[in-house]
Amino acid sequence: MEFDNLLTLIKAVSDSELTEFQYEENGTTLRFVRETPKTELVLPMEGTPQNQNVQSVPSVLTQNTETRQAPEAVMDGNGEAREGKLIKSPLVGTFYAAPSEDAEPFVAVGDGVKKGKTLGIVEAMKLMNEIESEYEGTVTEILVENGQMVEYGQPLFRIK
C-alpha cells in the first residue's frame, strides 16, 4: 500500500465512529483500535436517603475488550439461565453465515467447534473478516441473521 493511501485510510478510520478496523493486503495486516471510555454507574449506599420517584437501577457492568471472552449467563423467556461463552463481533459491518450465497453456512446450532474454526464473516468496507471461534464446544445459539448489520461487541454466537 502506498504511503498516501495509508494516510487516507488512517484519516477515514479516525474520522469515523468505528472503534476497531482491520485491513489486510499482500500479507500485511493493519489494525486500528480506538479505546472507548469506560462508563461506571454509582448507586447510593444502603441507608442513604433517596428520591422516592427514582426507580432502582440494576447494576451495570463496564464492557471492555476483555469481557468479550468471559462466559455469560442470560435469562431466556422462561426465566432460565442460558450459559455459554459469547463470540462477539470485533467490528461494525454486515454478518454473513456462509462464504457465498449458494454455500452451506459455516456452522449450525448443535455443531461442535474447535478453537480457530470459522463461524461466519463480517464484511466491513468491502473487506471480509472471518469470525473464528475462541473456544471449543458446541454452538448453542446463532444470535444474528445472515445479511444483518452488526455492531462492535454485538453477540453473534453462544458456545457451550
TrEMBL record:
CDD domains: biotinyl_domain. Residues 84-160 form the Lipoyl-binding domain. Pathway: Lipid metabolism; fatty acid biosynthesis. Keywords: Biotin, Fatty acid biosynthesis, Fatty acid metabolism, Lipid biosynthesis, Lipid metabolism. Gene3D superfamilies: 2.40.50.100. InterPro entries: AcCoA_biotinCC (IPR001249), Biotin_Carboxyl_Carrier/Decarb (IPR050709), Biotin_lipoyl (IPR000089), Single_hybrid_motif (IPR011053). It holds the Pfam family Biotin_lipoyl. This protein is a component of the acetyl coenzyme A carboxylase complex; first, biotin carboxylase catalyzes the carboxylation of the carrier protein and then the transcarboxylase transfers the carboxyl group to form malonyl-CoA. This is Biotin carboxyl carrier protein of acetyl-CoA carboxylase. It comes from Blautia caecimuris.
